[in-house]
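Subject: C-type lectin domain-containing protein structure
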Amino acid sequence: MDGWSWPRNRETCQSQGGDLVSMETEEEWNFMNDAIQRRNTKSFENKWSIGLTKEKKGGNWTWVHGRPLTICKWGQGEPSGEHDAAFIYKRSRNGERGVFGSGRTIWKNYDAYICEISKGKSSFLLLLLLLPCHKTIGKRGKLITTEISPFQKIDLVAVISGGAEVTRGLHRNITLNASLSYDPEVAHADQQRMKFTWHYGKVTGIPFSKQAEAKAKADKDFITAVHESAIQYYGKASGEQISLNTKAMSVNQTYIVKLVVTKDIRISTVYQVIHLIEGDPPEIYQRLEIYFCSKISSYKWVLYQQFKRNTSFTWQRKHNLRLITSTPLNSSDIVIKGGSLAGGNKYRLALFVTITDGFRGMNAYEFSTAIPPTGGNCSITPPSGISLKTDFSLSCSHWKSGNNPLSYQFQYRLKNDLYNVLYRGVNNNINTSWIPPGNNAYNFVVKVIATVTDNFGISASPVSSAVQIKPYQNVSTDFITNLLLAKDSLFQKSIEIGNLREAALIANSVMLSVSQETSMNLQERYKVMNYILEKVSPLGAKTVSDLLHKSSAIGSALQVLEKVPHQSLNISLFSISSMTSLLWSIAQKQLVADTPLTTQSAENLASCLNSVLKAAAVTASEDSKSSFQQQGKLLVKISMKALEKVADSLLALTVPDEIMIPFTAGQLSMTLGRFSLQRLSGLEIKAGKGRFILPSKSQLLLSGVNKTSFVDVQMLSISFNPYTWDGTKERVASDVVTLKLKNNKRELKTSSSLHL
């Protein structure tokens, strides 16, 4: 059997006197969510078909017995406008548990399904899991069929605060904390039924003494491998947090702590090596919470990779760390560039800190790099076609991963340099005719980038496919009306149901075809662009994909229009301002899987604001007697504030002393950076044709600078200034250059003695 579609699953339930399950209350959903969290399916996506479907007329989602959907449990980006059947996830690819997802009734999947069966006054719940064997449990009128799952439970994660190796002082007790340990199968902070057992002892034997000799010769870098044969345990304790009395310990001795975390049949173990030294060395914990931070005089980062030799493991220092980081190795933060570390390896990252009193502390964390999806390919067919006419098939196949389900993203960049996403979800094959034409300067070639990502957000290297897409020829008024303007057009239907993705794809394809159509007069083009602006701008955006869809459509319309009508300008700017707020919210979450699209959304919004600034500045330079002049000035101020929030969002994705971010959007250039205080002295910032040099340390005066942990630098250069300076009404073309310095609360700071 190739698989069971949603209708087939429903038929199976109906054949047993029931139907696919309905969940009309929070209580019913809570019960169902709790039930599926304790089960797995044969489907790698761990999802069950449920009795929720979309009406053909009206497009409303209702339960199979006709009652409306009264609880909102849709997952991020759901439901898709083209889908008509629903299922419930154990955990979606975004990590959400028990959320609803959408699909097509015609799809064939090995999905599990949940039946609700009534027997007289009793209600029965039947979870059918498409597994080779199952067992039935009957209890008080409830019949639950559950699987004998062939899948193992996910391992517990045991964590000791401080990392794999630390230094501690002799004059204070040592606190051992396991609160960061968790069970991946439940909520991250839920530690119910988890037991913590501590074993502590000291290191003895030859293996460690030999390592100590080697360490003494290797510029005092601590790096200790754990061998049970060389550990002499002398104590045991239990609890999430315990304390060790250092009075019974010896200075310059190496101690070992072993944490054993247990739950059900699972056991997870982690070690911490403790070097006990004189005095009070700085204590470093996860997220670099460093005690005595005001006294720190230097930082040093060191990276080791684990190798297996014969039957034992050794750590080797990676001497190319400076080449694979975007931060200095003597900074308080470190960023290792993506793609620099090979998948499937184990690393240890150590930080050595020296304080002004001369004491030295260290912290080391071990981490493993995941193996991304491998072995597959992605393609687009046919190799050439016409926008809005040719159906293109984009597919990815034969990708393998141990962390299913996989998700797929197909993306392209418009010829006006705006980004957009064709699709982002679990389907590995899509068909569409809504890919905009390419740039005629490059023979209309469009590059489609496919990215395959596993369940934990680890992506394979993007796969690029080139396709030639020419604009639709002889775009007539009737064609535009049928596709865009008519009440029953595809575009209008997408607007009515709030399908932002579909509306943006149609809009971009139409606009870029119209912009190259010589048979249409200027008035007809303006009508199309204004209509798109007025229809797309009010649509709500909730996800980073929505941001790309909406900003690309609005940005394309604004670029085509040489002069934006006042009403359209107001609508556009209101929508753009709303999107910058969403961008800031998404950036603060710092989700690794969303970072590329977040950055692209920021560039799209900057391009939109460049167009708005240009249009608003033209309005502001009109006759002073016109009421539009004040409106234009106000729009310029609002646009600049929105642009500042875009910069704040990009900086939220960075750490102090990371390489500065330069980007250009139209006539606008920005350079952004986040810096520790000591690196501001003499800092040179360039953007466009402008340049700033901050004063030397002795001259640098920042108000309130001692109260911030870093300073954000935002430089803007825009080469359009239409204001008139005299009575000739001739416009002056010059660059406008601004520099903003902000503290860690996003408050503006002032500096003296700036050099241009």
